[in-house]
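re: ur question from yesterday

yeah so i grabbed the chain u mentioned. its 70 aa long if i counted rite. heres the sequnce exactly as i have it in my notes:
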Amino acid sequence: MKYLIVIEQTRTGFSAYSPDLPGCVAAAGTREAVEQEMTDAVAFHLEGLKAEGLDVPAPNTSSSYVDVPA
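ran it thru and got these structure tokens back, copy pasting raw so excuse formatting
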């Protein structure tokens, strides 16, 4: 499954979260590192949900960019 992650630059690196998985977050010094941390965090989060017998939410968030005049 593919889950959307939102990556934001911070004063000290990058942070990320997944809108479809509340509480699933990561932070790292580089964009590449935070993407890897989120991959691991999403997998861990889903394993935890399954272990607790909870439903795994289907990915349903999408994103898009819009062009606006400068």
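noticed a couple things. The radius of gyration is 14 Å. also The chain has a mean pLDDT of 97.
anyway ttyl
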